Structure prediction request, 148 residues.
Amino acid sequence: METQMHIMGSITALLQPMMALIIWSMLVWLWMYVTRLPAIAAAKMKLDPMAPSGTQMAQLPAKVRWKAENYNHLMEQPTLFYAVTLALCILNQVSELAIIAAWSYVILRIIHSVFQAMLNIIQIRFVLFVMSNIPLIILIYLATGYVY
Prediction:
């Protein structure tokens, strides 16, 4: 019984950073609309479903578009993070290194989001993106070691 509780505690510890990134993603989604809808109204845009994708939103100020671009980024690469985190939980291969790597990934992605959504300094974003790949690669390596 105690071993089963320890396993569940470990799995929960690895699921926490995953859920934190999911919550962050939804906060960015909300931030995107809180800034986008007033900008659309201020520009008196008439949304046209026949307009080529992206052309209408390109008319909005850059600081408004940055939130949407970041939201899109949060729907791309982090899917690997979600998959590998769940794989480690399913394989019951949760370790202290995996938990540290997962939190490191989440923290770096949140910092990346803030820079992209507020300042969009590409050089800093690039460094943060590369740095966030290090813990992701560690997680993938850990999971791959148990699969192959």
About this structure: The helical segments are 2-42, 62-74, 78-90, 96-119, 122-147. The first helix runs from residue 2 to 42. The mean pLDDT is 93. The chain has five helices and no strands.
